[in-house]
Design goal:
The chain is mostly beta strands and 300 residues long. It has a single domain, classed as Beta Barrel (Porin), CATH 2.40.160. It contains three helices and 18 strands. It has a 14-stranded antiparallel barrel. Strand 16 and strand 17 form a beta hairpin. The protein starts with a helix and ends with a helix.
Length: 300
């Protein structure tokens, strides 16, 4: 009984800190699919993206996130995509594997609506053996002395995106699930929290060389502190770009990227918290994008 109680407390503790929220990414300018599933296939079709993010780099056991995604057009107006997200924070692991179907509707003239539905699986694990093998901690006989894995849980999300010329406005509900999830080793159940996100963006073509893309978003959900973020990217000749960002509470950032070869893009993003010392709570994210079609296309 004590072991079950401790595991439940651990699950709730991890839920309160991360609230089962989809791991954050600042790579939304290069990979729009990471911002909303509605972009699957309709933004950078035929592109594969991978990124590695390290949060709280001054803290031992800070979150680490690996993303893999691909999306393409399925047929006229229809797109598809798939993504894998692995997130590790201390002794807690999370894995998302999702597939997406998206569809474009023309309302009138240049007004369009993108709708998307994603479905997949979610799994998490608590690595108690990492705790016991860490010399900085004392063995607690109340704790369960083995790793605890959740049973695979069905997960889905729904999103909608309005497009008009350079204007984009979207809404997404993530972590939609049915029923409680359970763990294999202990008699404990939990229910992942539903998240929601609103975002708006604009593409401003200044001239043939320069383009500016401001973005704003609002995130929240059950037991999740609401968060507002703003960012803006400046792109030159559609080949190199730089960005500035802010999200509360007091997280500032910058990024840069470039097309480094035919069909290949690279980006780097850095965040820091203005309320603490500069050498802790820093976030680094490195991303690579490969457009398969451009890569294999023969030069005329």
């Amino acid at each position: 009984m004590k072991k079950s109680i401790f595991v439940l407390i651990s699950i709730l503790y991890n839920g309160i800190l991360n609230a089962q929220q989809m791991p954050v990414s600042e790579n939304y300018f290069m990979d729009k699919y990471s911002l909303s599933s509605s972009y699957a296939g309709h933004s950078s079709p035929g592109s594969f993206f991978t990124s590695f993010r390290s949060d709280w780099t001054g803290i031992v056991g800070g979150p680490k996130t690996l993303r893999l995604s691909y999306s393409d057009m399925l047929m006229t107006n229809a797109g598809w995509g798939g993504k894998i997200i692995y997130d590790k924070a201390g002794i807690f692991d999370q894995l998302y594997v999702m597939g997406t179907y998206s569809y474009s509707l023309t309302i009138v003239d240049e007004h369009k609506l993108l709708l998307a539905l994603s479905a997949g699986i979610y799994h998490n694990k608590i690595n108690f053996t990492d705790y016991y093998n860490n010399p900085n901690y004392n063995i607690d006989p109340v704790m369960i002395q083995q790793d605890v894995s959740s049973k695979v849980k069905f997960m889905s999300d729904f999103s909608a995106l309005y497009l008009f010329k350079g204007i984009e406005a979207g809404i997404m509900f993530a972590n939609i699930n049915f029923g409680d999830a359970k763990y294999n080793e202990v008699d404990v159940t939990y229910k992942p929290f539903v998240n929601y996100q609103l975002h708006a963006a604009y593409s401003w073509q200044i001239n043939d060389r320069w383009n500016i893309n401001p973005l704003a978003y609002f995130r929240g959900g059950k037991f999740i502190s609401s968060q507002i973020g703003i960012a803006s990217m400046v792109k030159y000749q559609n080949k190199i770009w730089g960005s500035l960002s802010f999200r509360d509470p007091g997280i500032w950032g910058f990024g840069f990227g470039a097309k480094i070869a035919k069909g290949i893009e690279f980006s780097y993003n850095f965040n820091f918290a203005s309320s603490v010392a500069l050498n802790i709570y820093n976030n680094h994210e490195i991303s690579i994008g490969v457009n398969i079609k451009d890569l294999v296309k023969k030069t005329e």
